[in-house]
UniProtKB/TrEMBL annotation:
Signal peptide, first to last residue: none
Organism: Noctiluca scintillans (Sea sparkle)
Protein name per UniProt: ER lumen protein-retaining receptor
Classification via InterPro entries: ER_ret_rcpt
GO terms for MF: ER retention sequence binding
Cited Pfam families: ER_lumen_recept
Organism taxonomic ancestry: Eukaryota, Sar, Alveolata, Dinophyceae, Noctilucales
Signal recorded as keyword: no
Family (UniProt): Belongs to the ERD2 family.
Keyword vocabulary terms for this entry: Endoplasmic reticulum, ER-Golgi transport, Membrane, Protein transport, Receptor, Transmembrane, Transmembrane helix, Transport
């Protein structure tokens, strides 16, 4: 099935979201978490609810199941972040907050989307890809400012990066099949490159154990 990798990537993201839901529910705190990242993913999944019916994803029930569960998870995370907003005082740089990345993602979607038309459903597809690519940046920025990344948070972010890498493989596969979605591939390539150093540290932590320190001075 051609869309297997695409759906698999979002199932990995769903697992990450469930892990984060458990963490926030258990600790009643969002310390070290970016509310802007959660807002970005919420907007992304809402956008997917609109354009998914115009794609080949409608051919498989697994896509519907994943999308429904992802909507529930994103709304749940947004609610928990709102309820526990008082437990954090740290936020990303203004240029990385949702009021900056949202319009930037929309502008990029208008400029770079599949097809020749200036107004099409493909704009929403591109918006989702760019918003999700930019969505992780606030979380990475916050973790740079922390001495040590909490274990469940480290796994959450690691799974998100893996999810984007899997989707990037999907775009590469489509390219070799003759369907060129280079604009969408570009978004996931940028996401992977920007988070590659964290992914290296996370894999190192999984292999050797210990703490994950993502500050300016690397160390595990």
């Amino acid at each position: 099935m051609e869309v297997f990798l695409f759906i698999l990537g979002y199932y990995v993201q769903l697992v990450a979201s469930c892990l984060l839901l458990f963490k926030i529910w258990k600790h009643k705190s969002i310390y070290g978490l970016s509310v802007d990242t959660q807002a970005a993913y919420l907007f992304g999944v809402i956008s997917r609810c609109i354009w998914v019916f115009e794609t080949r994803l409608v051919d498989t029930k697994f896509a519907y199941i994943e999308l429904l569960l992802s909507v529930v998870a994103s709304i749940g995370l947004a609610y928990l972040c709102f309820s526990n907003y008082h437990t954090t005082m740290k936020h990303a740089h203004p240029s990385l907050r949702i009021y900056s990345t949202g319009p930037a993602s929309l502008l990029l979607a208008f400029l770079f989307h599949p097809g020749d038309g200036w107004w099409s459903m493909q704009i929403l597809v591109s918006y989702t890809m760019f918003q999700e690519a930019m969505g992780l940046l606030p979380q990475l920025w916050l973790m740079r400012k922390m001495h040590e990344v909490e274990p469940l948070t480290s796994h959450y972010v690691g799974l998100l990066i893996c999810a984007r890498f899997i989707r990037m493989l999907f775009w590469v596969k489509m390219y070799f099949l003759g369907e060129h979605f280079l604009q969408l591939l570009f978004a996931d390539v940028c996401h992977t490159l920007l988070s590659a150093d964290y992914l290296y540290l996370w894999f190192k932590k999984l292999r050797y154990g210990g703490r994950l320190i993502y500050s300016q001075n690397y160390g595990v």
